[in-house]
Amino acid sequence: MIYRFTCIVCPLGCSIEVEVDDGEVKEVRGCTCPRGKEWAVQEVTNPKRVVISVVRVDGGALPTVSVKTAEPIPKEKIPELMSYLAKIKLKAPIKIGEVVAEWKGIKIVATRGA
Amino acid sequence: MFPRIPMLNYDVVVIGGGPAGMAAAIRAKELGLKVLLLDENDYLGGILPQCIHPGFGLHYFREELTGPEFASRLAKRLVELGVQYKTASRVLEITNYSDLEKVVIFTSPSGAYQAWTKAIIYTAGARERHAFEIGIIGDRVSGIYTAGEAQTLMDIYGILPGKDVVIVGSGDVGLIMARRFALEGAKVKAVIELMPYPGGLARNVMILRDFNIPLYLSHKVVEVRGKGRVERVKVMKVDENLREIPGSEFWIDADTLVVSAGLVPSVKKLKRIGVEIDPSTGGPVVNDRLETNVPGIFVAGNSLLINDLVDYVAEQGELAAEGAREFIENGGIESRKWVKVEKGENVRLLAPHYLSGDKDVYLYLRVAKPMENAELRIPEVGKEIKLPVVKPAEMLRLSLKAEEIKKAGETLTVEVVKV
Description:
The structure holds two protein chains of two kinds. By secondary structure, chain A is α+β, with helices and mostly antiparallel strands. Chain A folds into two domains: about 1-45; about 50-110, CPE0013-like (CPE0013-like fold), CATH 3.10.530.10. In chain A, about 20% of the residues lie in helices and about 40% in strands. Chain A is elongated and about 55 Å long. Chain B is α/β, with parallel strands linked by helices. In chain B, helix 1 runs parallel beside helix 2 (about 65-80), helix 3 runs parallel beside helix 4 (about 170-185) and helix 4 packs parallel to helix 5. Chains A and B meet through strand 5, strand 6 and helix 2 of A and helix 2 and helix 5 of B.
């Protein structure tokens, strides 16, 4: 199986191919730096993303605060986290940078105050 | 004839409280000027508070922030310095009486005012192109939004605008909104891109793969149909000259159409006082102080030219403030023989347009078409910079030293050519 990516590590945007056999990375082609190679392997073996969304808040100037996960989480966990975020409701005041919730050990941080 | 409304006095009035305006007001205050910052929204930050994704601030703050975090840093500094600002304040009119006498008439929750000022820094941002401007015809239905409108609804007010979404335009904003819709459980049926290549940064194009969103390159939405609400949109393929190919049409069922078709600098109020506009940037023609042809009127951010990075927007705000200080102290920016910057091969737009040669500058420019193994050249001063990849979607920022500019004669031509 060959996975193809446009690298996002830097603006160069190398076209990278990762050859995977039996769940094992055999070869990485097309990247011009070790950071790109590392990123491509991670994308194939365990892709992670920082998740950003908004959460409802009562009593603030705006009805939501924006949040992010304090660290990247595995891609396949994103839908589960999103349905958790959809259910919670916070109360103002909320300070920017405040940890407003925790989900399976992942801190949810406010990126906007309320 | 002049309205009898309370009179205020300032050195500088900054119009627009987004990143350019906040950075300009902060710098102006640091330089000892008496400054007033006006914004028509209820909150400062411009579009940043709704840009909740990361990717901001890598140059300006040397760390990666979300939009609201970037805005909050500037707002904090603004408040610490005691910069005077008014939100929910709408500028009705700008009048230029003389070089050091300008009047900004605005309304605010506490009434209307006339602010007399020596200089104006105009940082009112840009507006989004709408469906009508890109030739989409059809029924007058609800469910058609610009990307920014959809973003405001979702990320400020927590309202999902629709469930089956077609997005026009694969620029960064379109792709980022595709992700927001998909994350919130809406079905993004397609992203439709007129050009044969995606418009956004690679990291944003990856969103399509993450959420299995089909991207139609060389396609356009031509028609919207529905009763009361969007029900379906008609898509056509285009040829290499961007002409619709007859017989290529197909329909996509959708309740929402999101238009992400680019931004246009908001310069109406400037045009009215005689500010000259560059048709290629859509913003004013400026010198290296970011001063327009009307003395003492400075411009920065997306009103100057459409930027990709907020970092450069804030940088322009600071530069305009420094220009305003020089203008006020010397009773004007000294006239001189300006070096005119010309667009050469594969340069679609650039600013600033005139350079003094007495200071280092950044030139902001965009190429007309993508190119690999390119070289940016300024033949008049012998400057050559290798660029592995250039794309219209990614603005180039070129640093030029005063000594280099001095080597040029009357003009300096920037070109991006294949090596």
